[in-house]
Amino acid sequence: MDKKLTNVALTLAAVLAILLLLVYGLGSVNERFQTGENAVMRFVFVGVGLLIAFVIYYMTRDNAAWEVGTRQVVWMAIGAALYAVFSFLFNGTVFVVPSLSQVALRPAIAIPMFFGYAFGPVVGLFTGAIGNTFGDALTGFGLFPQWSMGNGLVGFVAGLPMLFGDKKKSLDTVLWTGGILALLGAVLYFLNPSQPNAVFFDPANNVFGDAQITLFAGISLLIGFALVAIVRFVFGQNLDIAAAVTWGMLGNIIGIGFAAISDIWINGYSPVAAIVGEFLPAAGPNLIFAAILVPLLVVAYASVRRQSGR
Amino acid sequence: MLVAWRYRKREKSFIQWFDPRAWLIFYACFLVGIVTFWDVRYLLPFFIFTLFVLFTSGVQWHEIRKAFLFILGFVFFFAILTFLTGRGGSEELYRQEHLIRQFQAPFSILGWTPSLDITVERIFYALSQFVKVSSLAMMTILIPYSLDPRLYGVTFKGLGMPDKFAYAMDLTMRFIPTFARDFQLTVDAQRARGYELEKLSGGLIEQVRKMGPIFVPVTIHAIIGSEDIIDAMDLRAFGVGPRTWIDVLVRENKDRILIGFGVAILFVSLVLGFMGYGNFWVPDFLLRLAGP
C-alpha cells in the first residue's frame, strides 16, 4: 500500500473510531452524545459515508471506473450544479411539484442517479453530495451534511455497474436485493402503522412532520420497487435502461437509508421512527423518478452520443 | 454562454477585506457554532455579527433585494406559522406551555371555536427559529456576491482540495446561475408550446412523466455544452501535471485572526453545547407573568 493510500485509510479509520467513541464511550457519561440535535455527529456521519465509499474503492481500485480525468471533472461540476438548481426549484417554494397522500416528490433525485450511472461512481458521489449541499445553501434553510452524504451515496451506488465488464451480470441480484429491502420496509410499516411521517410538512393544514404516516407513504417503497421491476423487465432488451433504474434504485435505498438511519444518533430518533417515519416516505417516492425520469435521460443521452460519436 | 453571480469588487467591504479561504473557514465554524444552540441569548451574538457583516459587505440593496426578500420571507413565514400553531418546538424543545393570553373567535364552525393561544414558549421558539435561520441564510447569501469567481478554484485548492476537485467545485459554482438561466429559458420555450409546469394533469406517474420536457432538455443541453469546456481544458493540458493558478492568494495576519476567531467560536459553542448550555430558554419573569 503506498503512503498516500495509507494516510487516507488511517484518516477514515480515525473518523470511524471517533464516532464509536462519541456514541458508546462518552454517550454513557453525557446524554448530549446520544440523542438530540448534534452538530458534530452530522459531520461524523459524513466521514462514515466517505469510509463506505473508500472501502469499495479500495477493493476495486484497479478498475478504470475510478479514473478522474478532465471529462469527469466537468461532469462532476455539471451534475452538482444541475442537482443544486433542480433541488432549489422543486423544493416546493418555487415550483409546486405533484404530491399525493403525504408523499412529497423530489424529481431532482434523478440527476445523481443518472450522472452516477452514465459517468461513474466518483461523478455520482460528487453530484449527489455537493449538489445537495449547494441546493440546501440556495434554499437558505441550513445545511444537513449527513443528508448530503446520503445523496452522494445515491449517485455513488448508481455508478457501481461501471465496475462490471458485463452490466447484465448482477442485475437481477441487485433488483432482488432492492426488492427484499423494500419488502422489509413495508413489513416494518405494517408493524408500526401509527408512526408519524417525519418528512411530511403541510403548514397550511398545521402538519409539521407529526401526521400519522398514510398507507400510500408507508408502502411507497414497495410501489416504487414494482415500477422499477416493471421497467427492468419491459425494457430488458435495453441494458442501459435496465441497469440505470436497477442500480439507481439500490443507490436510493442505500443512500437515503444511510441518511435516515444516521438520525438515530443525530436527532435521537428510534430505529422505527427513522425507518418508517423518515426513510420510507423519502426513499419510496424517489423510486418513481428512478423508474420514469432516469430512463428518459438515459435514452436522450444515448441519442446524443450516437450523434456526436463521443 | 456562462452567466455569473452578481459579484463585483466593493470598496471597504468587510468580507472582501479577507482572504476567501479564511472567510470560508470562518463561515464553516460559524455554521456549526450556531446550529448548536436554541437559546436566543446565545443566538443573538451570532445574529448581531451577521447584521454587521451584511451592512459592511458593500452589497447594495437593489442587488440582493429579490433573493433576500424571498429567503427572509420564507423564514419569517415559517416562524410566524410555528408561533401560531405551536408546532415544531413542542415535540422536541419544550414539554409544557405557559399561557399569556388566549384569543377566541366570536363564532363557531360546526361546534369548533377557532382560538389562538399565546404562550411564552411559542413566542421564544418562533424568535429563536427566526434569529437562527435568518443568520444562517444571510451569511450564506452573501458568499456569491462577495467571492470573486476567478478565485473559486484557487480558494478550494488553498483549503486543501486536490486540483481536480478544486476545479470541479469552481465549475459547480460557476454553472449554477447558468443552469438556472437555462432552466428558465426551457420553461419559457415549453410554455410557448402550451406546456404549463404549474398545471400538470393526470395521475402521479403521468405527472412525473410530464416533467420530462423540462428535465431532459436542460440536462442534455448541459452535457452537450460540456464538450466545449472539456476540449478547452484538454487543449490546456488540464490534469497532466500539478496545476498552477493565475491568481495567488496570500494569507495575512488579519486572515489568521479571522480563522482563529472562527475556531474559537466553534470550540466555545461545542464545549457549551456538550456541557448542556444553550438549550431552549424562556425568561423566568415571563413564566411568572403567565402563571402555571
Can you walk me through this structure?
- The complex is a heterodimer of chains A (about 300) and B (about 290).
- Chain A is an all-alpha fold and about 300 residues long.
- Chain A contains 11 helices and 4 strands.
- Chain A has a two-stranded antiparallel sheet. A two-stranded antiparallel ribbon of chain A has the order 3-4.
- Chain B has about 290 residues and is mostly helical.
- Chain B is built from 11 helices and 2 strands.
- Chain B has helices at about 20-35, 40-55, 60-85, 90, 120-145, 150-160, 165-190, 205-210, 210-235, 255-275, 285-290; strands spanning about 100-105, 115-120.
- Chains A and B meet through helix 2, helix 3, helix 4, helix 5 and strand 4 of A and helix 1, helix 3, helix 5, helix 7 and helix 8 of B.
Strand content of chain B: under 5%
Structural class of chain B: mainly alpha
| First and last CA, distance of chain B | 64 Å
Could you say which overall geometry of chain A the principal axes of the C-alpha atoms support?
A: globular
Major sheet: arrangement of strands of chain A: 1-2
Share of residues in strands of chain A: under 5%
Which overall shape of chain B is indicated by the principal axes computed on the Cα atoms?
A: flat
**Average pLDDT for all residues of chain B:** 85
Number of beta strands of chain B: 2
Number of helices of chain A: 11
Helix content of chain B: 55-70%
First-last Cα distance of chain A: 35 Å
Oligomer: heterodimer
Sheet with the most strands, sense and barrel status of chain B? 2 strands, antiparallel
Task: Output the strand order for the largest sheet of chain B.
Answer: 1-2
Structural class call of chain A reads mainly alpha
Short summary of the structure?
The complex is a heterodimer of chains A (310) and B (292). With 310 residues, chain A is an all-alpha fold.
